[in-house]
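G., before I forget:
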Amino acid sequence: MVQIFIPAPLRRLTAGQAQVAVVATTLREAIEALEQQCPGIRGELCENDGLAPTLQVAVDNRMTRRMSTPLKADSEIHFLPAIGGG
Amino acid sequence: MSTEVPSRSTPDASDLSPSSAAETKKYKVIGTRPIRHDGADKVTGKARYTSDVLLPNMAYGALVRSPYAHARIVSIDTSEAEAMPGVLATMTSADLPDPWDKVENLGEGCINYAHLSGNVLARGKALYKGHAVAAVCATNAHLAEEAAAKIKVEYEPLPAVTWVLDAMKEDAPLLHDNLVTQALGEESARPSNIGAHIHFEQGDLEAGWAAADVIVEREFKTSSIHQGYIEPHVSIAMWNEDGRLKIWTGTQGSFVVRQQMAELLKIPVSQVLVIPCEIGGGFGGKIAVYEQPVAAVLSRKCGRPVKIAMRRDEVFEATGPTPGSYMRVKLGATKDGKLTAGEAWLAYDAGAFPGGVIGPGCMCVFSCYDIPNAVVDGYDVVANKPKVQAYRAPGSTHAAFACESVIDELALELKIDPLDFRLKNAVQEGSRRVDGPVYPRIGLIETLEAVRDSQHWNSPLEGPNRGRGIACGFWFNAGLQSSVTAAVNPDGTVSMSEGSTDIGGTRASIAMQLAETLGIAATDVQPQVVDTDSIGYTDVTGGSRVTFATGLAAYQAGLDIQKQMVRRAAELWECDVDQVTVEDGVYRYGDAALSFKELAVKLNNAGDPIVGRASVSPQVSTNAFGAHIVDVEVDPETGKVTILRYTAVQDAGKAIHPSYVEGQMQGGAAQGIGWALNEEYFYDDEGVMRNASFLDYRIPTAFDLPMIETIIVEVPNPDHPYGVRGVGEVPIVPPPAALAIAIHRATGCRMHELPMSPPHVWRAMQDR
């Protein structure tokens, strides 16, 4: 199962769960599956058809903003603040 | 010196995995130190900076800035200025389109266009001393300055707040009536100056404290400081009658300037051309636009190109800086030296608009250590100061000052050598960060081992009032988007175009990766940074990403060329494509062999021109670490800290051009030393910066610094075919902590506030 790590402020939408397991083959599918289990959470993570601009995602520890990012059966997903650099 | 951990050969096109790459071949170009391609222009004064650009019939702009840190703008009267002979146009925020409350990720963090527009020219309220309120352009710069003084602005001064903790108080003056605290969808019930709350946690913090034998908790404060680039902000805008807007500017991201201009002026992005000029330093401070939209509107109004050049005081008061901060860090460890728990509470000011650098601060604070149980809380707080911008590893230096100082104190409490303590707890492949992701192959342990084995670390330090410190630092590497095109010339050289503006020698480091891929000399590649109409989209030069990501694009463009050359060689030799082999830039078929240059000459005018291209957006997990050693002597009479010796050690993955890696390490260390020992914004009670010049804002000079020694560690980055890790930002992170620890060893005083300038150190010595 794909493991989605839930940021602490969003655990109000996951009944306190820090991790939610879903079956998905892409990041988009994973977020949709998460929304099925935890209604309302997609709106906090996404904007329009993509990731919210204030966020970035680590899929298996690699940063991405592509919703089509492929997942392995046991992938890990983390949502992190978007950051800049100098 | 360089500590080499296995070097790598040129891999195949499909191979980005170190495990499958050939490991035995030595590079021919990578790792050498050729003269930089833009060197002659730079050292002979021929390089073209924006100030050097003169256009026919050019006008000059000047800005009117608020004398108050916080004030309501009652009225603006431009009539007297407009009546002056030679004055061509004036403007206020009313001349900018109504901003939309749109947040966009421009690759390096987010921009809220309503905030950006309000920062370019104040709307309703001036939020910091120096906030631009109106502008004027005239036939020469002096006249523009005189006209600016004739623009009458009536203000209603308001209470101001500049210190982050004061701004967080319930009764603090509010900068924005509608700002509420965001915490991933949760919003506070009523407005405050706190724009965001970030929270990370892992493990069981209470169990972590219970397992600890020793716990240390300390508070830290830092002042706002500026990036201190030598070239002030300068831009020229020419808005043609056909609707096309051209911008000449020194920027870290020409495409990001294009995007911001299109959004702020509400024109199609295709109507904006950005021509990047050479840049005299940026360090994160030249990503957001300031004067460019003003010059554009003035140009449209007067029908001429308009140049705006900031004075140094404007640069200090209205651009940059990095935040002032308050931090509380608590760590616990067992008697045998294993960290069990960590807690950090960080508040960074964001300047006048929300969206500072608290996010990376929270992500970095415990990034060097494997702490099984940890909680991090961070607050983004607006204050009556210029809008915070990135500065070299934004947020990480503050956090490292706090965390590394507590690490050192904890080690001493445990009677464990601080270097051994760090080695015992250092993150490595498989360690989980407090924000969640797991590290891939990283080189912190190798870096610390290089410290342990260094001549500096093993040298004696004798004499009174002297001490040695060490500290670690971490920063990410961004991937983002990069494009490169490369055309093979008839003489076998290659003209390479890229969109990454060159702020640190990246023309050379990118050209060298193309040369290595093609098997030609670095001098046979001519790199140029081109405008936004001449190359595919390329994100900012920042996030330590250019040598990594644009270098990856150059590598792939090289493979594209190589593929075309093989096809053309097969045509030449009248054989099948798969009968042509390539090794070290030599193309072979049977007994026939031609070098890249020889083949290029033969192929000239014999078929399609050969042009390689690549655009990339690598998904990265790359991370880089450094550790610095410093010896100091503290004058007991004055508190002045003299640096006796300084060594920066850093994992570069693979140093493409070691001189430029060393230069980045030295430059970052120098800036970190300035941050540690002298630099600060002095605000008076009215929120006015009292040291807005290089005379009073003291950055280090050559008289303040010894030769900064460097040790490059090379643990290849698994995300890059040549193993590159970004190197530009890490070296600013360790210096304040390393110096604080060295001062402790010299004086017995723990320093918890930056800068550790003579008055602060002297006071600490009096209080001990």
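Residues 2-81 of chain A form a domain with the Ubiquitin-like (UB roll) fold (CATH 3.10.20.30). The beta strands of chain A are 2-5, 19-22, 46-47, 50-51, 55-59, 62-64, 76-81.

More on Monday.
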